[in-house]
Amino acid sequence: MKKILLILCVAIGLHSCKIGKNYQGVELNQPDSYAQADTLRVVEYDSINTDSLELNTADLKWWNLYDDPVLDSLIRTALENNRNVLIAAENVLQGRLALKNQNAEMLPKFDVNGQVQRGNFLLNQVGSTQNLVLGAATANWELDLWGKLRRLSEAARADLVSSEYGYRGVMISLISEVATTYFSLLRAKSQYEISIRNATSRDSMLQLIQARYDKGIVPVLDVNQATIQYTIAAGSVPQYELQIVQLQNTLSILLGKNPGEVRTGKPLNAQNYNIDLPVARPVDLLARRPDVLVAEYQVIAQNALVGAAKGNRLPSLSASALIGITADSFGNLSFNNPLWTLTGQLAGPLFYWGQLKRQVDIEDSRSFQALYAYQNTVYFALKEVEDVLAEIRTTKAEIEIAEQRRSAALQAQMLSRERYNMGVTSYLEFLEQQRQAFDAELLLEGLRANLLSSYVQLYKALGGGWLTEEEEAQVKEANAEKAAQEKE
Hints:
Helix content is 61%, strand content 12%. The chain is α+β, with helices and mostly antiparallel strands. The chain has a 4-stranded antiparallel sheet with strand order 2-3-5-6, with no helix packed on it. The protein has a two-stranded parallel ribbon with strand order 1-4. Helix 3 (83-104) packs antiparallel against helix 4.
């Protein structure tokens, strides 16, 4: 009895071991702040849920700041119906099932089988012809001495968490893509209306010039120039009409429906351009950006696979049991004299020509690849935030200048037309002012759409803007789980 207890204690002690190194995190040299950020708007990660426009943002969706109910409706529809989101959700489901499968590898396996035989060589004995009816149940269990199976479970759990952050990343990308496409659609509609207005105005001017030419007041060159200017504006109308159709079709696909017309809300010039997002510290990207977290959990998973590969080089201990009954006919089957056997087996690799060691080296190499990929993801995340912050700042400056340009160009166009009607200036001067006014209007609408899209890209670059209470709880739970693994 003492020997059995000693064996059990040794087995339990070995079972608590896990070969390989536990994940200790990755050291990264993170800057204290963004070079392009306004230091007065840099906030701590924990204050993101409350720091914005004196609003309680615990349940606030970022795109609500635009105050466009149509945009809000489109984003909600996309989150429910977009096929890429549904694919990502299936990835999470597969990860959960894979983790359960891997955890089941640490439990005993049970089988049942039955046989019916007739012959003169049964149960390894030669004799007269006879029948054999056999029914048996077996159990097999591999004890996880070195933690190989637990390392594989650890890898599966990291893959699951990675897929969950991947799912969130898909949703954030979808939100940004829907909003960006929506603002591009507003831009195309605005430019389409500008083109129609200019084409109508130029057509009226063409008719006036044609009437003057018919009376011999102006040369044919003025008619030709007026015709050219009209066709330039009129020719841009179908171009923007095509853009509207293409953007509506793109938006329809994002919404998970057939291509078709998409309703829009507030026009481009009525949108909110004074959005002030709180920018967290660069180090907070490590806990907020889904792509960074996905990359880190891939490092964790690969670290566990290294331990599993090392476990394959060590002996394995397994136990098996069989219980059954046998007779020469079904009527004689009875449990009065059952068959049974208990087996313990210790088996280990002896000489595999270096295959197992090389497999460890391969997994080690893959760990370095995962680490480098994680570092690159962090660097790219920092770059993306810096780029978007610079884009917002410079686009605001461009818009301010473009508004002055448009105002001056429209006024110059009006004055030039009056001067031309009074015969003070040539028609060529009026045409030039007309061209500049048209270009200035189109440019301003393009810059406005770019600024709105830049806010969307900042939302995405920061890891999705604010976290809801539920999302924050998920992040904290994942971080706590990772910290617990590091302490093991």
